[in-house]
Design a protein that fits this description.
This protein is an alpha+beta fold and 183 residues long. The protein has seven helices and six strands.
C-alpha cells in the first residue's frame, strides 16, 4: 500500500527545504567545510567530493525523469521520503519532520528512486531498481514489488536502502509549507 504522504526532515534551526544544491558550487563546498568543522550532524560525515557527485547524480535523475514525461521547474530537486522514516530525523541535532499529502503533487513534479539518490544511482549490486527513476504512476507497483525499505530494513542491516526517496522538481507544492514553518 502506498503511503498517503511524503516526509521532509530538517534541522529545526534552519527550517525546511534548505537545499545545498541551490547554492553555487563554491558556496555549497564552503557550507560543507563549515558543517565538517562544526561536526554538525550526519552532513558533517560526507566525503569531500559530495557536492560534485550529488550534482552529477541529480543531473542524471533529472534527465531520466524528463525522458519519462517529467517537467521539472527546478534545476535541482528538494528531497522527501515516501512515508515516514524516523531514522532520517536522527541525522539532525534537533530534527524535525513535516509531511505533505501525496495528492498535492502531480506526476510532472515528482520523481522517485528506490533508496537514497546515492546508492540508488551509484551501487552496482545488480538489484533491478538500481539506476532507475520512477514516476508517480509507477509508485504503487514499485511498492507492491519491493515494499517500503523502512519496513523490511528499518535497522539498515540489509543494505543501504532505508526509504524511497522523492525528488521534488517544483517549488509550488512546497511554498505553503515553507512559509508556515517558523525558523
Amino acid at each position: 500500500m502506498v503511503p498517503d504522504a511524503l516526509y521532509h526532515y530538517y534541522e529545526q534551526s534552519r527550517g525546511p527545504f534548505r537545499n545545498l544544491s541551490d547554492l553555487l558550487q563554491d558556496e555549497a563546498e564552503a557550507v560543507m567545510v563549515l558543517l565538517r568543522q562544526q561536526r554538525d550532524g550526519f552532513a558533517s560525515e560526507r566525503n569531500a567530493d559530495y557536492i560534485a557527485v550529488r550534482r552529477e547524480l541529480e543531473d542524471r535523475v533529472r534527465q531520466r525523469f524528463i525522458a519519462k514525461g517529467g517537467q521539472p521547474q527546478r534545476e535541482r530537486p528538494h528531497y522527501m521520503t515516501v512515508g515516514a522514516c524516523e531514522w532520517v530525523k536522527g541525522w539532525y541535532t534537533h530534527g524535525c519532520a513535516l509531511s505533505i499529502l501525496l495528492t498535492r503533487f502531480t506526476p510532472e513534479q515528482v520523481s522517485f528512486t528506490y533508496g537514497d539518490l546515492f546508492p540508488a544511482m551509484r551501487y552496482g549490486d545488480g538489484k533491478p531498481y538500481r539506476q532507475q527513476v520512477y514516476t508517480l504512476p509507477e509508485l504503487p507497483e514499485l511498492i507492491a514489488t519491493y515494499d517500503l525499505p523502512q519496513v523490511w530494513n528499518a535497522d539498515g542491516r540489509q543494505g543501504p536502502d532505508r526509504y524511497i526517496e522523492a525528488q521534488i522538481w517544483d517549488d509550488a507544492p512546497l511554498s505553503a509549507y515553507r512559509a508556515s514553518v517558523s525558523r
